[in-house]
Amino acid sequence: MKLHLILCGLLCAGGAARAELPPDTVRAIHEAHKDSVLMVSGTLKFQAQKEREIQVAGPATVVDTNGLLLTSSSTVRLPMAARKTEIRESTLKVKLPSGVEVPVRVVLTDADLGAVLLAPEQPAAVPAGAFKPVNWDTAAQAQPLDPVVIVGRTEKAYGGVPDSAPGKINAVDRKPRLLYICALLASGDGEAAFDRAGRLLGIGLGAQTIVAAEELQDVIEQARRAAAKTAAQKPATDKE
Question: Which of 103, 106, 71 is nearest to 85 (CA)?
């Protein structure tokens, strides 16, 4: 996450992006949600028009207790516009707060949202309670100039540790979908955004862009079905 690279400059530039939130409030939101945004890293080898390999490293928000993860196409740089992309080899892993690394795979991509959804390779092997999701049931909406707290992870070079920062909603775009524009969010790599009460607003999916939580429900359900379908097929594949 690039927050630490731009936060000082924004705060010093006349306070343009300074959130009107007490430090204790920001700290409480950070502590409540820091384990709901995890670091994904590894490599993907895929075939589109030709075989390519990419390095992946960035934050992903935990969607549910089964380990479904939501991140951005800026983190998992698959060619979204390609008619067909076949993943040949994956070493992707998500690092849990305990330090355990769980192999994950891409289950769905959405070019319109710039979203990539991942799930554990072996769901049955993941310990109960290993994943702490954000709360979609209490998701809220925001208005321009409302404060926001972005919860993500530092870049891999800085250890991928939890990284939170206060900002504000600079603008709201309602067509064709509900988006929040936040200058603090340099790249939008899969971080989670919360309001002053700690309620989920949405996920960073693109430069300065938070996609509202309500706009992500359909793609999340599609990803769950895709993950369940693949999991159901695995026993038969193992016997072959």
Answer: 106
Cross-strand partners of 45: 53, 89
pLDDT tens figures, 156-207:
889 999 999 999 999 999 999 999 999 999 889 999 999 999 999 999 999 9
Q: What is the pTM of this model?
A: 0.87
